[in-house]
Amino acid sequence: MASAKLVSSRLLVLVLLSICNAASLVEETNNSLKSSPGAPPGASSVVFNIHNYGARGDGKHDDTQALAKAWKAACSSWRPAVLLVPKGKSYLVKFIALSGPCKSSIVFMVKGKLVAPRSRSAWGENNRRHWIVIQRIAGLTVTGGGTINGKGKIWWKNSCKTNKGLPCKGAPTALTFHLCNNLKVENLKILNSQQIHLSVEDCSNVQLARLSITAPGTSPNTDGIHITHSRDVQVRDCLIKTGDDCISIESGTHNLHVTRVVCGPGHGISIGSLGDDNSRAEVSRIYIDTVRLYGTTNGARIKTWQGGSGYAKDIIFQNMIMDNVQNPIIIDQNYCDSAKPCKNQESAVEVSSVVFKNIRGTTISKDAIKLSCSKNLPCSGIALEDIDLKLQGGKGDTESTCQNAKWRKSGNVVPLPCKSSKTK
Questions:
Q1: pTM of the predicted model, to two decimals?
Q2: Is 254 tagged catalytic?
Q3: CA nearest 234: which of 174, 183, 301, 179?
Q4: pLDDT per residue over 127-172, tens digit each?
Q5: What are the boundaries of each domain within the chain?
Q6: In the UniProt entry, which residues are flagged as the active site (predicted)?
Q7: Nearest to residue 317, comparing CAs of 416, 383, 413, 251?
Q8: Per the residue annotation, which of 130, 178, 226, 267 is the catalytic one?
Q9: Is 148 exposed, middle or buried (0-12, 13-18, 19+ CB in 10 A)?
């Protein structure tokens, strides 16, 4: 009997020690995560490690279901949750939708790598436009310093823009945020997306910061950051090198602030295209400030289709440095990205109250300023202030062309604006 009591006492001690050690480990992890970027201040977070839900992290086995299970558990937590993708491993993930609403705030801590399948056959026809979708979440932070790699090479190879003989089909956006409020996405690397790298859709109160977005300059339709139908968005301290627009700003975007962004290669920073297929577009209060562009096909651009309606107004492009940029300043209300010529139409998206201020650097084309506006709805309130754009290599002078544009000049502007303007 005494021996049995001794064994029982020893077992009790071991159990207590195990509980204490486990509690200590949880407390240590929580404390470290509380000090991590994005952790709710003063809150003890519950950690949901995808390895505890079956993830292998070898880059070969499919970890999609493990990530889905870990997300479900985190989303169901009444306490602030941390969904952890550990450092030093690669997690193969197919198409996945991580949905809310969730019971508490979530920090999606990507420290390792999330990698897409190499084969296009991993996507069905119903989901080929998306890879990772996060939707209907309030109070989400995505951070961690890790990598999201779309493995897009096979998609670019089979694009109709790369091979004219192929039919045009959509390709996945690497990371999509849909119907999210109070969203932070920061300190991540997004590489080689199949098409758009990061898309913000129908969201509000969004902060995008310290993102590195990279794909070859020849990769088709690989926009860096795409924003549509969203308001109160901030983008700052980002490095974007892609094969399409560094930042594309689409219809329904209001109160967007972009600052301290380096862009190139790519197609520059574009508002639009707007009004395609005779649609209505509304864009306002766009502030682009402190941007450097290297070797891009465009700098500060607004592009709209004929036949559209609506407006693009209250827009500021300022404090921009152009280095070897093809079209530094351009408004194009006759945009046409079609294999067939676009027919002339009378209606247009109204472009008004646009400021281009303190823009300097070099261009590889003589036309440094192009304002190609609608005959029936001319651009109005276009301000050109303190601009100095010179031809790369200093061989000759830059020029400007204007059509149906109502503009004003302030300070020193090179090239002299719109000498052949039809409408002033």
A1: 0.89
A2: no
A3: 183
A4: 899 999 999 999 999 999 999 999 999 999 999 999 888 988 889 9
A5: 44-214, 245-424
A6: 267
A7: 383
A8: 267
A9: buried
